[in-house]
Amino acid sequence: MAKRDYYEILGVSKSASADELKKAYRNMARKHHPDVDKTTGAEEKFKGINEAYQVLSDPQKKGAYDQYGHSAFEQGGMGGAGGPFGGQQQGSHQTYSWSSGQGQDAGGFADPFDIFEAFFGGQSPFGRQARLPRYAITITFDESVRGVQKEIEIEGRRQKVKIPPGVDDGTEIRFTNFVLVTQVKKSDKFVRRGYDIVSEHEISYANAALGTVAEIETVDGLVKIKIASGTQPGTQIRLRGKGIKHVSGRGQGDHYVIIRVKVPNKLSRDQKLLLEELEEIS
Fold this sequence. Notes:
The protein is α/β, with parallel strands linked by helices. It has helices at about 5-10, 20-30, 40-55, 60-70, 110-120, 140-145, 205-210, 270-280, and strands at about 95-100, 100-105, 135-140, 150-155, 155-165, 170-175, 180-185, 190-195, 195-205, 210-220, 220-225, 235-240, 255-260.
């Protein structure tokens, strides 16, 4: 069954402002929350409302959705073109419960208490449960990819915590009595798109025309790729399974190499003659 349009789910137009999106989301979520809406399918409808808002409230995801629709977040992405939005997109508001060393996806919602506070004036309907305190932890890009164990101090008590591989900037990891929010430093080599990695590789005009073999750095190490003859500037080469491992432990993203062609600023006399000869032959 085809997925419903996100704008249709929230009842807004494509030109809706951020405030209009937020207002529509709150109205729809309040109306169809499973504790309020007792009709069949209310829970699925509520999840769909959250999914629609998480995409449309994020400018980058909204741009991809406006251009490619739901295919922007499916395997292959960008309408089947295999672009950097291919694969499962993970938002920066994920929450994971941590127990016995395993991270578990909590359903993709930000924090249920945020919703209840909005609906019930700060009162959680769960009564005895209070909002868990949040602490930020800064890690490097490599640590976010491979996972890391850190020693932190919470309320005067030092303890070791394990950050699972695959966390992103803004990922929430829920422990028994607190939540850690990861802040990931930027990489000077890679750009992250969900679980995919994007990098650029520069080649000469001659290599673009004749083809070559290049060595590409990925998060898993060096990989040799074949660049076909006649490769055009901006061509993307997809390295399947060379991206970031999913924080759930299932699957791995892809690595996209964008080819840039270097055009020399200055040419020697011989180079000019060769290019002029090539132009005449062409």
